[in-house]
Amino acid sequence: METIASTPTHCPYCALQCGMNVTPLPQGGVEVTERTDFPVNRGALCGKGRTAAEVLSPAVRLTSPLVRSAGRLVEASWAEALDRIAERFAGTREGYGADALGVFGGGGLTNEKAYALGKFARVVLGTSQIDYNGRFCMSSAAAAGTKAFGLDRGLPFPLADIPRTGCVILVGSNLAETMPPSLRFFTELRENGGTLIVVDPRRTRTAEQADLHLAPRPGTDLALALGLLHLVVAEGRTDEEYIRLRTTGWEEARAAAMAHWPEQVERITGVSVPRLREAVRLFCEPEAAMVLTARGPEQQSKGTDTVGAWINLCLATGRAGRPLSGYGCLTGQGNGQGGREHGQKADQLPGYRKLDDPAARAHVARVWGVAPEALPGPGRSAYELLDALGTDIRALLLMGSNPVVSAPRAAHVEERLRSLDFLAVADVVLSETAELADVVLPVTQWAEETGTTTSLEGRVLLRRRAVAPPPGVRSDLYVLHELAARLGVEKGFPTDPEEVFEELRRASAGGPADYSGISYRRLAEENGVFWPCPAHDTRTETGPAARGDSGFPTDPAGHPTAPPALTGATGGPAVVDDGEDAVLDDLPDDPAQDTGDAVSPVSAAPVVHPGTPRLFLDRFATADGRARFVAVTHRATAEEPDAEYPLLLTTGRVVSQYQSGAQTRRVAELNAAAPGPFVELHPRLAARIGAVEGEPVTVVSRRGRAVAPARITPAIRPDTVFMPFHWPGEGRANTLTNPALDPTSRMPEFKSCAVRVEVVGPG
Ligand code: SF4
């Protein structure tokens, strides 16, 4: 039998980006097997990854462009579909101006697609109205991390550090269901004598693994963190030397925390003072400890302050920027990290540069060959953009997202999408959002195309093409290339992903997320490279290049020893200095040039930068190198329970579905395991309202109603109900959720809204 080679690549789904091999089968189709050489999943795959081959099947795919005709979507040629989009976009721009055109991207798009989409919006369409669904994912952690550390990279250390720390507080993450292979790092932590504290209103499968489970009321994580910090201070557990040497703003943050008495925090959160004290003891006693947050504390209308409070806890105890310690965010979507770095966010340019920074604009404009003044300014955030559809925004191009299911107040968003003059959607399947479109474009996905993603660790990875796409399917890069040409921009939108990546390197050079030292060749040879990774390593012998990837130079007290003059000595972006294009000019045009053998780090010749697995060990990425405390205080959720809506709804995921379910609902095994939504209720609540296990109940909020079977369990608080959000239709959880926005990150309040539950009567 003919031997067909396997291609090593990465999972299409979550931000763990597990390594897998894809092998075409002689009889047709492909096989997915786990890779043991990738240090994150180490040979494990969850059910979603294991069954990922099924979403490649033409049986579940879009394989022809569709255009709306007489109210129905009918097959059309690529030329016809692209012509129609270009014509309608040009007409809309002429009639209403460039900002009447909107672009909505996704955290699953590769870095190349995210980069090209941002450039397309700003250079071809000239619109400021671009954002993406990652705004709904980790934007509060990104905002809080940037405030505190001067830089957001989900995890500033590799997952492999987790088993070697002393304690982890995992806040609002059910990773046993969202990214199961990662649980091994926490199991090993406990085997090594460390402890795991899980903060979650539900006793999830992750919480069952914990040494201590704190179950606060939804929306009170901020008060919980303040209560812990209060106790840290009261018990004399602060690290005063660290605070003095490595931080600013402590007095204000300390005063804010001391105003939150533990007894008051107990009343707000429902977590008893003895449990708060136990958490403080477990967190403070080991030499090293971490706080990791996920969507629980982040998807709140005070998400930035909530994450800030957890960061304050890390800073007051001297954890951040220390070996095996610190704060990190567990990003969710497959390319949630890279997707927010390269320009599809409303306020950002590639390289994680700020759109309103003149130097950043000049740098990127130069790479793009346009005048800086030609680049639009910041646009609306994701929900605000969706809310403006049909009024200020008349035509929308949507790539890699399904907001009909995943956006808050989803019925309203659906109605806004329907009100558009024109909607074009590029997707791999006919999602609920694509069903509303005027033109649908069938595009390639993971194993059918080469591209890069950036995992939750900040590790840039090469996803390789392993199989040919079905006939009729083209890449998103082809779509942007063709639309740009039809709209009068003939150059600058290559269809070859490596060519796009080479431009992305130049655009990111010198920025916070500097990819200029990364090439496809390096990614293939090194199994991924952590950013920042400048084109040339300019560090001295005391920098990480000299001490190796895993070294931690410290003084006898355990404090990092790199001299202050070593700006960015962690390889980090410490102070971002474009050097107005000295960096850009210095970047070799030939990617092969920067992959030569590394020489001594003190050599005059440039050497290859090894990438930066660990950030902040020497200094933070702020102007003065110090982390900033941010004084935060507790406030109520945007919608507290009342007589009419006496309960809190919180939403989340289940192990066998992914995000809006557009792909995983089409996989037989996953669909059988998780065929539909449910409403989790505490037995006392169920008894009070007469709900019966498996029988339908209606959950009602101020925005609508959702119906799903009751699942009665003591694993949830009696004042809280839970629904997974993967399904459309009458059980759509996001019909209920509240779009109240965080003032900084513009994150909607997915994690708590006031509801009531009604039992559905017979007939
Ligand atoms: Fe790994 Fe996430 Fe894919 Fe599961 S879905 S195999 S955890 S990358």
What can you see in these coordinates?
One of its GO terms (molecular function) is molybdopterin cofactor binding. One of its GO terms (biological process) is respiratory electron transport chain. Residues 577-592 have a biased composition (Acidic residues). It comes from Streptomyces filipinensis. Residues 537-606 are annotated as: Disordered. This protein is an alpha/beta fold and 763 residues long. The chain has four domains: 7-60, N-terminal domain of TfIIb, CATH 2.20.25; 66-137 and 336-495, Rossmann fold (3-Layer(aba) Sandwich); 139-329, Dimethylsulfoxide Reductase, domain 2 (3-Layer(aba) Sandwich), CATH 3.40.228; 647-759, Barwin-like endoglucanases (Beta Barrel), CATH 2.40.40. It contains 25 helices and 30 strands. The strands form eight sheets. It has a seven-stranded mixed β-sheet, with helices on one face. A hairpin with a 2-residue loop joins β25 (696-701) and β26. α3 (111-125) packs parallel to α19 (476-486). It starts with 6 loop residues before the first strand and ends with a strand. Mean pLDDT is 90; it is low at 540-603. Bound molecules: iron/sulfur cluster. Iron/sulfur cluster (SF4) is lined by residues 11, 13-14, 16-18, 41, 45-46, 48-49, 179-181.
Please identify, by name, the CATH architecture of the largest domain. 3-Layer(aba) Sandwich
Strand content: 15-25%
Helical proportion?
25-40%
Low-confidence segments: 540-603
- Enumerate the strands of the largest sheet in spatial order, edge to edge or round the barrel: 5-4-18-17-16-6-7
Named once each, the bound ligands are:
iron/sulfur cluster
CATH fold topology of the largest domain: Rossmann fold
Biggest sheet character: 7 strands, mixed
Total beta strand runs: 30
CATH class of the largest domain: Alpha Beta
How large, in whole angstroms, is the Cα Rg? 25 Å
Q: What is the domain tally?
A: 4
Molecular shape: globular
GO molecular function: 4 iron, 4 sulfur cluster binding; metal ion binding; molybdopterin cofactor binding; NADH dehydrogenase activity
Keywords: 4Fe-4S, Iron, Iron-sulfur, Metal-binding
Biased composition (Low complexity): 593-606
Domain 4Fe-4S Mo/W bis-MGD-type: 4-60
